[in-house]
C-alpha cells in the first residue's frame, strides 16, 4: 500500500494514504536524511525529532487550537479597529457642533468615505469578499467547492473591508462574514500545515475543517462556543458527523476563550464574562402568565423573519435586474453603496430624524441598552438614569418610548434588508438581533406599563423584566430569519444567563415553525438568488413528480481506459478533462467495469514510463536525440528537486501540476516524452539536418506512444461507487448527500454505461423544480418526511423492468 | 405506486409508501365509508374530518409533544414517589431513635426491602429492565433492534423497580433508565399512533424516534432540553441527521417545560426555574488565575472517569464469572442485591461510619449542599449556618471538612461502581455527578482556605466560590465517564447559570481527552461486557489489518426467486426465513439480478392467487373439495375482517402474520391453498372415500403449486443496494453505517453471487478484532481519522483484480 519511503509518513498520517503518491518526494527526502544520519548520531536524533514534530503537527488538536487562536485574534483586532472608527466618528461629529450643517456633513461624509473605501477595496482586491459568505460556505460544503472563495486574497479583502463597513455604522453584522473568514482561515491553515504534515493534503478532511471554521467564526464573534458549534452544524450540514461536532466544540471553545482573554490582558475587562452580560434576577426569572406572551412573540417574530427574508429577496432581485439592464446607477458599484450609505446616515442623523430612532447609538450600544436590567418607562416616559448616555437616546421630549421604539424597528427593518444587498462584506445576524431586541423591549415595556405592580407570588412582588423580553425577541427573530435553533443558545451565551432557557427555546421553535412554512432561510434565499451550485434538497412530499431514473440524466459519454489502452490513449484522456478518477474496463467491446484508477496514478504511470525510457530504451533511441533527451530530463529532474517549499502554499498538488503543465502547453505530448522542442532547437542549430533522421525519430516516438500500458504497478480501486440504471433520482440524491459522493459509475449487468457526477445530479433536480429557481426546503418540513437514511424502497412494475432488459 | 384505495392515505403519509401494501385494508375500509357517505351528506363530513384527523395525528409535532408530555408526567411521578419513599425512610428512622440498634435495623431493612422488591420485580416482570438501558438503546439504534427491550412489560418493570431502587437510596441514578424509558415510550407511542395513521408503520422512522426518546428522557430528568438533545445525539449516533436534531429539541423542550410546570401546579415551586438553581455572582464569576486549576481538575476528572469505568468493568466481569461458575451467591439474584444493599446502608448508617461521609443526605440533598453559594469552611471547620440540615451533615466535631469530603468521595466511588452492576434498573450519571461535585467542592474549599481573602481586582474583593468548583467537577467527571461534551451543557441547564461556560467546557474537553485515551466510555464497556450485537467501529488507524473484501465474508447461499419460479418455490422460500426482501434474478442459470421483491409483495401475490383460485378455477376443481374450500375461505375472510383493531398494538404487520401463521402450522402449504385439513375432516366423516378422488385432489393441488408465478402485479425495487465482490470491509462498513442499511446484495458482472447483512458484517469485524471482545473506539480518536464520508479509495493491484476475473 505504501509507496516507497513513506512508511513512517503513513504511520503518522493514519489512513491518509490517498495522497501517499504525492508524498513520495517528501518521504524520499526524509529517508535520505536518515540514511545519512546513520553515520552521525546527532543526525539520527534530528530525524527522530523531525518525525515527532510531524506527528505533533499532524494531531488534530494542534490545528484546532491554532485555528481558534487565529480567529480570536482576528476578531479581537477587528473589534478594536471598529471601536476606533466609531470613536473617531463621534469625535469628528462632536468637533463640528458649531453648526448643524457642518455636523451633518461630518456625520454623513465619514460613513460615506468608509463605505466607499470598503466597497472599492472589496471589489478590487477580491470580489468574493462581498456579501455574507455563509451561502458560499454552505455551497462549498455540500455542492461544489468554490475554490476562489477560500484564498488569502479573499481573506484580506474581507477582513479589511468588513472593518470599514462596521466602522461606518451601517446596520450590518460581523457574524456572517466571520463564518466565511473562519472557513477561509481553516482552508489556508490546512494548506500551511500541509508543508509539515501529509495529513493536511487530504481533501475530504480539509473540507470537514471548513465546518470547524464556521463554528469558530461564530464563536469568536459572540464568545458563544456551544451556540457556534451548533450553528455551524445546523447551517452547513444536512448530516452531522460526530467527529465534526467534537472538532467544532474544541476549536470554538479555545477561540472563545482567547477572544475573551484578550480584553482582560488589554485591561479593558476584569475577567472572562459574557459579551453582553446581563444581571436579571435568578430566583424568579419569569411568571407562568408571561409564557403565553413569550410564545406569541415567537409567532410574531416568525412572521417578521419571513417578511425580512421576503424583503431581502425582493430588493436583491430588483438590484440584480437593474444591474442586468446596465443602467447608469448600477454600472458603478461605488455609486449604489454610496447612495445607500448617504440615505441611511441621513436618516439616522441624531439632530434630525435620528432623534426619533436612537440614531446616535451604535449596534452595540443599542443592544446593551435593550438588554438593560432596568425598566425604562414610567407610563411611556423614560425615567432619568444618571450618567447613562445609552438610555438617554431613547428619551425624547415630544415622543414617548413606545413611538421611538416602533420607529426604530420599522426603520432598521428595511435599512438592514437594504444594507445586506450591498456589494460589501455584511452579515444579517446582528442587525436582526438588534431589531428583535427592540421588538422585545417594546413588548416588555408595554407590559411593564400595563402591569406596573408586577406579580405578587406568595407575598413577594416580582416586577416584569423588559430586558428579558428583549433577549427573547432577539433570539426569536434571528431564528425566524436563519431557521436555526442555535440562535437561542447563542443568545444565552451572549447574555451569560440561562434561566430563560424555556421561554427562549419555546419562542425560537415557534418562530422557526412559522417562518419555515412561509419562506426559505435567508441563506437559502441568497443561494437561490446568486444561483450558486448548491445541491438542492428534493421535496419528498411530491416524489411522484420525480419519476426519473439514473439512466435519464446520466452522462453516457464516459471517458474510460481499457486494459489495452496505449500511452497515447491515456495522455489523450488525461488532457481531455480533469476527472479525479477514470473507470477501467476490460475492453472497449465488453465494457465490463473492472475498477477505477486515480488520475494521480495514471500520471505516475507516465512518469515511470519516462524514467524507464531514459534508463532502458536508450539503446533503441536514435543517437543524437538520446543526448539531448538525457540532458533535458536531467535538467528537469534537478529543477524539480530544487523547487522551493514555499510554492506549495500556492499549488498544493505539486507533482500533478508539474506534469499537467507540460501537457497543456502547446506541443506537449511529445515534449513530455521526447523533449521535442530540444530537437527543434537542434534542427535550427544545424542548418541541413537529414530528413531521414527526423523521420526515424518520429517513428520511434510513435512506437513509444502506441505501446500498451502495463497497469501492473498501478493501484486500482476495485469497487468504485456504482449505481444501476434503474436507481431513482431520489435514491441517487440520498446516496450522494449522505456519502458525500462526487461521482458514481452507472453499470448495467456489470457493463459501464454511464456516469453521474454532482453536476448531472444537480441539473436533473433543477429540471424537476419550478422555473423560478431551485426550490429549497425548510428544515422543519423534514418533520413530515421519512428517513432519508435507511433503505429507500422504490418500486416499478415488472413489465417496465423487462422492457429495459429487452431493450438492452 | 399506490395500492388501490390508499391514495388519500399516501397523501397524508408523505412518502411512507413502503408499507402501503399493509395499509390496503385500512384504505379500503375508509373508502367503503366514503362510498357510503356519498349518499349521506353527514357521512361525507365525517369522512372529511376523519381524514383531517389522520393527517393531524400524522404530523410529527403532535407525536413529539405527546412524547414529551408522557415522559414529563412519568418523570414527575417517579420523583414524587421517590420523595415519598425517602421521607418514609427518615420518618421510620427518626421513629426508632430510642435505641441505636433499632435505628440501624430500621435504616437497613427499609432499604433492603425496597431493593429486594425492585430486584424481584425487575427480574420477574421483565429482565430487560435491569441495568442502565443506554447500551441497549445504543445497540438498537446502530446494530440490531433488540425488540424485547421496547415492550410495555419492560416499561412497567423498569419504572416501578427504578422508583423502588431510587427510594432505597442506593447510589444509582435515574438518568440512564430514563433514556431507556424514553425510547420505550417512543416505540410504544409509535405503535399506538399507528392505529390512526399509516405514517407510524414506517420502521425507519420509528427507529429515528428512539433517538428522540433518549433526548426526552434526559431532558425530563434534568430539565435540560439542550443538553438532552445533544447527549442523545452524542451517545446514540455516529452520524446525525438534521431532522433528528430538530425533533429532539422540540420534544425535549416540551418535555422539560411540562416537567418543570408540574411542580408549579402542584404548588411545590413558585415558577419555572432550573432543577438545582444556583445563585453565584454574575459580575465576576471567576478570576483568570483560577483557570489553570479548572483545567487541572478536568485532567484529574479524566483519570477519575477512566478509573471508574475500569472499576466498573472489573466488577462486572467478576460478577459474570461468578455467575458462570454457578456459585451459591450468584444463583439467586436477590441475594447479591440484598448483600450489596446491606453493605452500603450499613456503611452509610448516620450514627455509624455514615457520620464521616454525610450518610444521611440523599443524592439530591448532597448535590444541593455541594452547589451551595456559601463557603463552608473556615480553616477546615464548617461554619454554623442556622437551620440548614444539609450543611450540618458535613460538620463533625472530630474531623474537618476535608477529611469528610475525601471519605465521601472514596466511599461513594466504589459504592457507585458496585451498585451499577446490580441486576436492577440503575444509571451511573447522577452518582458520578455527586462524586464529581464533591471533588470540586473539596478543591474549592481547599482554595478558599488557602486564599481566604480572595482576589483583589481594581479595589473589589472577590472571594472564591467553592460551589462553582463543584459544578465544574461534576461536569468534568461525568464527561470522563460518559465521553460526551453535553454533560457540560446539562450542568449549565441544571444549575441555571451559564457564566461558567468556558471553565466548564475547558475541563470537560480535557477530561474527555484524558479519559478517552485510557478507557472506552461506560456505555461501550457495558456493550462489550454484555456482548450486545453492536456494530463496532473499525479502528481506521490499522486498516492494513482488515485486508478483507466482501467476497470473504458474504453469505453465498442466497435465497432468490427467478422469473420462472413457481408458487411452490415462493412458499418454500418464504417459509425458510424471514428476510424482508428477496432478490429477483432472471433465471437460475444466468443469475442476473433484476431487482428485489418485498416479502409483503410476495405474500400479496399468494393472497391474490388464493382469491383467483376461488373465483376462476372453480371449474377445474374436484366437486366435493370445491364446496369445502369455498366455505373455509369465506370463513377465514370474514374472520380476518372482524379482527379487532386492538391486536394491532401487539402485532403490527397483521396481514403478514395472518398468512405466515397459516404456513407455519403443520400441514400449511396445502391448507393455505386448498384447505386440506377440511378434506381430512371430510375423509374422517365419510368412512369409505374413494382413493381415486383423493388422488385427483392431490394432483390438482400439485398443478396449482407448480404453476409459474406471474409477477405482473408485483412491485419490484429495480435498484436494491448492491456491492461488488471487491468492496472492502471498510467501505462496506462505512456504507452500512452511513446509509443505515440492513442488507446488500453482492453482484459480479450483474450476477448475484451473495448477500451481506448486518450479521455477516458484524461477524467479519469481530473476527478482525482482539479475542477479548469487540474493540470499541473512543470518540476523540476520530480526531485523527480521515473522513468516513467521502469516497474512500481503497486500491489493489491489477494482478489481484485479474486473478479474480480469471477465476470467475
Q: How would you sum up this structure, described in words?
A:
The structure is a homodimer of 808-residue chains. In chain A, 61% of the residues lie in helices and 6% in strands. Chain A has 33 helices and 13 strands. In chain A, the strands form 4 sheets. A 4-stranded mixed sheet of chain A has the order 6-7-8-9. A 3-stranded mixed sheet of chain A has the order 10-11-12. Chain A is elongated. At the A-B interface, α9, α10, β1, α11 and α20 of A face α9, α10, β1, α11 and α20 of B.
Can you give keywords for this protein?
four-stranded mixed β-sheet; homodimer; 808 residues; three-stranded mixed β-sheet; 61% helix; mainly alpha; disordered N terminus; ion transport (chains A, B); 33 helices; elongated
Q: Secondary-structure map with pairings?
A:
2 copies of one chain form a homodimer.
Chain A: H1 7-12, H2 20-37, H3 41-58, H4 60-95, H5 100-125, H6 134-142, H7 152-167, H8 175-193, H9 203-222, H10 225-236, E1 239-241, H11 242-265, H12 291-325, H13 328-331, H14 333-347, H15 363-370, E2 377-378, E3 381-382, H16 389-392, H17 401-419, H18 429-450, E4 455-457, E5 460-462, H19 466-482, H20 486-495, H21 501-518, H22 522-530, H23 550-553, E6 561-562, H24 567-576, E7 581-585, E8 593-598, H25 599-615, H26 623-641, H27 654-664, H28 668-674, H29 676-685, H30 691-706, E9 715-717, E10 722-724, H31 729-739, E11 743-748, E12 751-757, H32 758-768, E13 796-797, H33 798-807
Parallel strand pairs in A: 6-7, 10-11
Antiparallel strand pairs in A: 2-3, 4-5, 7-8, 8-9, 11-12
Helix pairs in contact in A: 2-3, 4-5, 4-7, 4-8, 4-9, 4-11, 5-7, 5-14, 6-22, 7-8, 8-9, 9-10, 9-11, 10-11, 10-20, 12-17, 12-19, 12-21, 12-22, 15-18, 17-18, 18-19, 19-20, 19-21, 20-21, 24-25, 27-28, 31-32
